[in-house]
Every structure is written in structure tokens, then in C-alpha cells.
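User: Predict the complex.
Assistant: Input components as received:
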Amino acid sequence: MSAGTPRSLPSSGQKSIQDICHPLSAEESALSRSPDVLNPSSSAGEKDLSLPNGTPVDTSSPASSSSLLNRLQLDDDLDGETRDLFVTVDDPKKHVSTMETYITYRVCTKTTRTEFDLPEYSVRRRYQDFDWLRNKLEESQPTHLIPPLPEKFVMKGVVDRFSEEFVETRRKALDKFLKRVADHPVLSFNEHFNAFLSAKDLNKRQGLALLTKMGESVKYVTGGYKLRARPVEFAAMGDYLDVFTQKLGTIDRIAQRIIKEQSEFLMELREYGPVYSSWSSFEEDLHDPLEGVAGCVSNCSGALEELTEDMSEDFLPVLREYVLYIESMKNVLKKRDQVQAEYETKLEAVVFREDKKTPVPTDVEKCQDRVECFNADLKADWDRWQNNKRQDFRQLLTGMADKNIQYYEKCLAAWESLIPLLQDKQEAKGETN
Amino acid sequence: MAEKGTNLLKKMEISVAEAEKRTGKNAVNMQETYTVYLIETRPVDAPSEGTNPVPDSLWRRYSEFELLRNYLLVTYPFLVVPPLPEKRAEFVWHKLSADNMDPDFVERRRVGLENFLLRVASHPVLSSDKIFYSFLTEENGWKETVFETGFQAKADSRLKALNATFRVKNPDKRFAEMKHYGDELQSVISQLLRVRALRSAAVVQCESLFVLDSEWSAIEKEMGDGLQSAGHHMDAYAASVDDILEEEEHYADQLKEYLFYADALRAVCRKHELTQYELEMAVQDLTSKKQQREELATGTIRTFSLKGMTSKLFGQETPEQREAKLKMLETQIEEGEELFVKSAWVDVERFKEQKDHDLREALISYAIMQISMCKKPLAPDALV
């Protein structure tokens, strides 16, 4: 970890076990501070909004809290310090070559950091490149939790890899990934990340060369040491992750059921509307009202279709993302166990050494360092993860509520506009009577 | 739903107030359970202050309503007679069992029967029928009175004639179109009633979201507050789902009435066709009989007729008899034409107007129901 000077972690550092709150407790760390820019009822359409990190807000749709949340980068650890690194992923494009067809995304960077040669970058990357980056981060920063990527493999027959919805869903997830890395006080200074953002051609072998150059590369070899007992706080993390995985599974199943029911209902609605249309075709006086009803029903089914799509595109992928995230987090926990186990084993060996007067070998001291660093990094990242997770899921639910509200508003508008049409002729008739 | 202030309804208020279960022995001496309905009538010009006079009332069962309607059908073949509610629960929704004893079904039937009586009472012609009046006022002996009219015999012969195939030479275009309309209306309403989508979208949504919310709030306590309120709102909404279902049933009932009305309309058209056919036959008969008379008078036999031969073989009728027969035929034709030209179409027109008005009202209240359903989750306290 030699690239640049990592910022000192503003997080708590080492605490005694009594002071550390249980991850499942209701009162969470004091680091969380809900941004007060979120006001779901404000109509952001008129104001010229920009978010705390300076990114201007594009409010093309009437303000819903979720559209604001989508663009907010919520890393409260920075405690209002000005950010100096902004990353976005956009502009997907299809590339067709003789060998293969694939999508690239534009990655834009704006920064004032001295680690970068230029203040702005714009490069094109494909999924493979993101995958490479993530692997590199995992390798080079094994004590940290690396954010997840969207799923790599898709069933070619089932999902259209080039459909707008799929590409957009992926783009959003990739954007989130880079933003999370950019906001991380340690990961954002990683040289692979730097290369990813700035290099014209991402030579994927480059990382290897850099690695061997590093003076003090820390290699956490899983030496097959056995850990006696996981410390309470980390055991609690492990438990939490297990429970959370289960719950995610439940939510996923429920969400899928909702989507299925909505789709079935949609099919029926699509049959229902046209019946009114065919009815109107053989009525005279009732022709317009019946056509009106048919139109209304078709508007409602359109709105329902959108709602179902949003559910599929926004809700489910986030759940899946977290499942992957949790997998990688569990691995990090295991690695930590390994490091601790190594230390404990070596320490034991030293304790039973014959010559008690010689100082503890540096080897053991290094191990102790490693354990302490790992623990500190992990704890800080855990807090950060909890925060992000809370934000993500709040956004998810608020988003879902918003989408539902929009759906009802659309249906309401459709039916309300029908009433005058239905009543109109009556009044006219009344007059002629 | 029915027009007020025509004929009978000007004089009396009619309602089907209650329904009750009875057990008794039926025609083959077996125990059976059936439902009876209380018909209440009250004179319209009851004193506005002071005591409310006790309404006259009597109990009738569904089969008696059926009897009344059959009588009306036979006696007024060219009127679109209002339909009765379903005998059995056919279009079953919301997983109700098709059980005639089910209280919801009985209640909806009560409403349907009341509607039937009000429709008849407000019909310009039907409302002054004596049998209808005694249906409302005379509990005992009504059945006998009906049978005494001899309508059964008429009904049987009509039924036979209607079932036979016949072809009209010059069918009346208006009636043919009306019959076609009845066919289409019946088909379209059946389709609507079959589609489960008459169930509101809101119901489907609500159930799912409710489950999702309550599962989630069990997961993360730190998000407790936001989710608890969402859970509560869903609770309140779920409670109002019952109201929604009821209103949907009401809409379905309105459609059903016109489904059955379509049937009645088609029946009128068919009867009209039959009458036209009979009229054509009668005219043909009259013509040939007149021809015969000519031939006999002048002594020339222009056409060979079997009747003429048999009458020669088996005895002739007297000229008086023959004249009488001819006169009868002529009257029959006159009456037929009278009925045919004048009365038949009038009620169809009346029905058309009623249908347009009623269905428009039904659509309006359907739209209003949809609006109130959409508004519920948008209420200010419902936002997460």
C-alpha cells in the first residue's frame, strides 16, 4: 500500500470490545448523518439544484426522492470534506467486430488530485475492464471490502445482452461501483484504479508490473493456519451477513412473485380494454363513452407495464448485487481470520521459545501489525458498508413507493379525464329534452 | 335505476325488504330448504308527519317471481320484459362458491328482485297489469289466479311454434337488426364478465406490497420508522379492499341485468318474426280462400285444390259458414297488422333509451369507483 499517503481513517480505529456497538443494534455509529438535502415533497423541477459533491442535478422528471438519491454519493465518512474526485459511467455504445460484439461505456473523471496528471479524463471501458479492476483491487487491498459488480454471466438465450433495459441496468450498477471506489479513502488512491480511469489503453498486464515494483507489497498468503476463535465483533459481522443473505433471498422471492402477478394481471387488462372497444362499435349513443373506457383501461395497463418493468430493472438487480457483495465480504472475513491465525500460531511458537531474553522476532511483530491493520480497515469498511446498505435499501423502498405513486397518479388522471366525457352527452341530452 | 313516477310507482312504494330461509315439503313430499323474500308495499301519499303506516307485506319465493315473469312474457309478447336475477350463481367471482344459500348471493338476489319489481312497476304498459298487482298484494291464491288465465296453454303453443323452423318472406329490417344487436350485446357482456380483470388493479398491488413491506420491516430495525408507517398505511388500505370488491360486484350486477335484458330483446324479435310469418301465412290462406269462393260462385274451377275436392266429397260448408271463416281470417289479419305495425316497435325504442341511460350511469359510477381506488394510496398520510 505504497501509492501516495493514505488519508488517516476518520473512523474510530481500535475500540475495546465493550465500546463497539453490535452491528445489529438499532443505534448505529455516530458517523451516519442523513443528508438533509433529501426532501421528498420538494418540487426540485424549478430549482437549480446541485448535490453536495458538486454534480449538478438533472431533474427531468417531477421530483421524487429516489431520483435525487440516485445521483447522490453518500459517503458520510468524509464528513463534509470537499470531494476531489468525481467519476461517472455513461454513454453505452455497441461495438461490432468480426470476432465479437460488445458494449463499451464512457468513464468520465474530474479531479484535482495530484496523483492524476490531468484534471479531466474520458475513456471507454467494457465490462471485462471493470472485472479486471475489481480483481486487482481485491488482490492489492485484501483488507478492504471491495464493492460488487453487476453479474458477469447472463444466460444468452434468456436475456438479451444488448437490450436497452439490460444495458441501462448494467450501466447504473457500474456507475455505482466506480463511485463507491472513488469515495473510499484508501481504494480511491489505488494505482490500478488510477490506471483504469486515465489510461488510453488499459494494458491489463500493467498492473502486474506495478505490483512487482512495490517495495512493501503485502501479501496475505493463506497459509492454512487455523483460527481458534473469531473475535466477537467479527463473529457478529459473520452472523449478520448470514441472516441478511437469508432475508435477501426472501425479499427476492417476494419481489419476483409481485412481478409475476402484475404481469398476469397486465395480460388480462390487455384483453379487457378491447372488449369495450368492440362494444362501442355497435352502439350509437354509447359509442363515445365506451371508447373512452377502452382508452382509459389501455392507459392504466400502460402504466402498470411501466411499474412492472421498473420493479424488474431497479429493484431486483440491487438485491442480487448485495448477494454478491456479501459473498466477497465473507471471503474478506476469512482472510482476516487467516492473518490472525498466522499471528497467533507464530506468537505461540515464540512464547514457548527457549531463549526468553531475545526480543520478539520482527516476523511476529509484523504479523501483529498486519492483524491490527486488517481489523481497523475492516471495521471502518464495515461501518461504511452498513451506511451504504442503509442508504441503498432506503432508496430502494422509497423508489418503489414513488413508482407506485406515479402509477396511481397516472390511473387517476386517466379516469378523471373520462368523467366529463361520460357526463357530457347527458347534459346535451337534457337540453334537447 | 328505474324511472319513477309512471303509473304504479306513482301510487305505491315497492321494496323487497328481507330474505329468510324456510324448510318445507315440496311437490313430491320431500324436505327442502328454500329462501323467501319479503315484498313490502306502501301507498305513496302516506302522511308525512306522525305515524308511519305499517307497510303491507307478503312473502314470495323465487319460483313465484319466475311464474309472474313467464305470465308477462306470454301475455305481452312484444314488450321487452325486465329480467330476473340469476337463478344460480353463474358468473362466479372472488372464489365464491356457487351456492344459492350463500348470504352474499342471497343478498344480491334480493336487490335484483327488487329491481325487477321496480322496473315492471315503472313500465308504461306492464305496470297496469292485474296479475302483477295481485302479485304484490295478495299472498294466498295468487298462483291459482295466474293459472286461471290459461296462459300456460298459450305458452306451450307459442314455444312449439317458436322452436319450429320457419322463414319469413320479407323480414322487417329493424327487427332483424335489433336481434343482431341483442346477440352482440350478450356476447360482449359475457366477455366482460368472464375477464378477471374487472378486479381492480389496486387489489393485486395492495396485497403484494403489504407482504413485501411487512417482511422488510421485520429485517432492519434501524429503518423501523419509515417502514412502520408504510405498514400501517397498507393495513388501512387492505381494510378498504372489501369496499372495492363490493363496488365491483355492483358493477357486475348492472352488466348482468343487461346481459339478461339482451335475451329478452332477442325473444321479442323472434316473436315478432313468428307473428310476421303467421301473418304471411294468414294472408296467403285468405287469398286462396277468396279464390275458392270465387270459383264456387262462378262455377269455374281454375285451380285444383285438394280442399275443394274433399269438401265436394265430404260435404260442403254452407255459404254462411264460409263467410264466417273468411271474416275471421280478415279480422285476424287486421289485428295482426295493427299489433305488428304499431305496438311492437314502440317498446323496443323505449328499451333503447332506458339501456343507453342506465349503461351510461353504470360507466360513470365505475369510473368514480376507479378514481376513489386510485386516490386511496395517494392520500397524504400514505406516503412513506
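The beta strands of chain A are 85-96, 101-111, 120-126.
Let me know if you want any component modeled separately.
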